[in-house]
Amino acid sequence: MFVPPDYNRTGGEHLLKKIMIPHGMAEAKVGPDIFFQQRCPVNTCTIVRDNPDSADLILFKDYITHVGRRSNSQVWMLYFLECPYHTQSVKNALINWTATYRRDSDVVAPYERWQYYDSSITQIPQTFNYAANKTKKVAWFVSNCHPRNQRMHYARELSKYIQVDIYGACGSLRCPRSQSQTCFDMLDEDYKFYLAFENSNCKDYITEKFFVNGLGHNVLPIVMGAHPTDYARSAPYRSYIHVDEFESPKELAEYLHRLDRDDDLYNSYFRWKGTGEFINTYFWCRVCAMLHDDRLPKYYKDVNEWWRGDGVCTTSSWREHDITRPQSQRNT
């Protein structure tokens, strides 16, 4: 974890840095407790909810609010966890730092972060048969029927070639959120595949739909959302299938039928289990440490362009998107 180079060499007490949160983030109670609870190596920070003029940093969650005049020494941070299609368009705001799920943020705040116990070991033998006694093919829990990508159309096309059971407002089956544990038990026991489809295809946008609904259960996630290279960087090796690996839903269905017939091949997608864990990224510790770094904070000339500019999201598939873009502009 980052610690400013001079932090432990200065001796004596460090100035207390004030982080103001105008709205949201209820888990961060007023005071310094969260920095001690997380055992931050740099913990001389405190949370405040008022008096913005005295704050060293103002953290805007989801949208910018008017907090009065800003001093030259004050840092403004924009914190987004939703994708560009579902966040405020930020204009004429001098943002210094960003905190989002994107890897090019100043503070990277992913939904989950996977870490191997040994980076050289990404697969280990499994004794459990994850296909045993499962009689159903593909499940999907979904409530947003009008997303910014083509996931509904893709799922319906896929269902022409393989059984796809859609639960929730967008399908004919029901499993209420109030009975979520029962729903996920059913997923574990009956289904081989789960559609972990995001509501938008945006850079690095990988949410609990994949990490919790998919990898958190004994099903093989089929993913749509971020670019295939983003999943490869964020997920355990060979733990999912990306729709853009296939030219069409029909081709994907053919491969799923193959997996359904071949338990060994199906189980090969679970060899990541036991090789690592999802870790705490200690968001508040990193923010506090950055505030104690003497280097001047940068600023974004146009944070809106960085957040939602060309190539960040696509309403088509990434396969189609990459074909139409110059090689130099493709996702890397």
UniProtKB/TrEMBL annotation:
Membrane topology field: Single-pass type II membrane protein
Native source organism of the sequence: Lasius niger
UniProt KW Transmembrane keyword: yes
Pathway entry: Protein modification; protein glycosylation
The organism's taxonomic lineage, starting at the top: Eukaryota, Metazoa, Ecdysozoa, Arthropoda, Hexapoda
Taxonomy, superkingdom: Eukaryota
Domain Fucosyltransferase C-terminal: 132-306
Enzyme Commission number(s) from the entry: 2.4.1.-
Designated name of the protein: Fucosyltransferase
